[in-house]
Amino acid sequence: MSATDGQAPVLIAGAGIAGLCTALGLLRAGVPVRVFEQAAELREVGAAVSLAPNAVRALDSLGLAEALRDVANRPALAAMLHYRTGAELNAYAMGDEMERRWGKPYLQLLRADLHQLLVQAVQALKPDALVLGARVTGLAQDDAAVQLETAAGRFSGRALIGADGVRSAVRQALHGEGGPSFTGYVAWRGVVPMSELRYPDQQPDTAVYLGPQTSLLRYRVRGLDAMNVVAFARIDRWVDEGWSSPADPQELRDTFSGWHAVADDLFQAMARCGAFKWGLFGRAALPRWQVGRVSLIGDAAHPMLPFLGQGAAMAIEDGVLMARALAGVTDVGDALACYERLRYERATTTVRRSDAHGLRIHNHPVDAPDPGPVPRDDFAEFDFDVAGLPLAV
Ligand SMILES: Cc1cc2nc3c(=O)[nH]c(=O)nc-3n(C[C@H](O)[C@H](O)[C@H](O)COP(=O)(O)OP(=O)(O)OC[C@H]3O[C@@H](n4cnc5c(N)ncnc54)[C@H](O)[C@@H]3O)c2cc1C
Question: Could you tell me the pTM of the whole model?
């Protein structure tokens, strides 16, 4: 592709985790970027995020090791608990044991803190890299460049990376396959101050309560001052308008009635402090992501259910690899092809594994007289090192 590729910026649609990681990787390699975000101000919603060792390894490669550990908790122990009795169904060590085994810790933090850390790192290298109020509405490309239409004007670049989430406009423009579909799962997410809890001293520090077709994940964040709570239920149809709305306390009570007092305390605190209800939407896998000078990363490329805690991790790995490919391979088309070759299998396998794990957990006959062993994550994603992967051109 064009000989002027070296000077023109890489355009990125979406300043979420995937877009910001790509931008940071490119800026660190001296490649000019512009990131176009639809929101008029940068504000990350959606409670907290778990970062498995593969995600931490990738973020560390972007120079964020110290800042990340400053805002994150490192859980020591996790357990699965019976939704009604609170009895321990299984438990495993996190903390030192995970760090010893994988060379990086498992961390938990507020999404807003992770997002802010990435924004600050990008702006420290290029104060005007982010263009806000710039909803992407269309694109065109030829052999020399990509033209991007946004609410903030028209821009031209050497490549365009669609990092605009599950409802990606870039994906729609490239592959035109319609909107995402409801996966049958709904999630309620909230962060409650420990002072709101009747049982603030909950052990272990990370737990999943398992109920029939339902689950509740809780872990501490922001120092240890607050509890992140995520409840999941399987339902037939998503009837709410939009894909996220303030949680209805009565619906929470009805969906999770009869739960153990400690779990019930979490639901009540969520109802009091305000939580959001999210429909979880997905898409069928695309046979390929790249079209010419344009490709997709993160949820725009491969949205996944959150049951392995790997959606943000994949977005981070994608960003690191996309930046390496664009900085390391001269021809834009070849760089995007290299990214896809190295990334496609990993991301689509994780999507499938996450689907399967969600089904195993939510179909576990927790109330049966002999329910058998509770399904456990085998941590197969954790040892991946996206920053050390050889670029196969
Ligand atoms: C309940 C729940 C819990 C989760 N927990 C975890 C977890 O513990 N660990 C984990 O690894 N993952 C988790 N995930 C998954 C993770 O949150 C996502 O996979 C990740 O945020 C994807 O990042 P992204 O940057 O690709 O997309 P997004 O975070 O969706 O960012 C997309 C950005 O693009 C912008 N945008 C959208 N359209 C346009 C447009 N047309 N023009 C310009 N900008 C646009 C948006 O405003 C946004 O800023 C969870 C998800 C859910 C639903």
Answer: 0.96
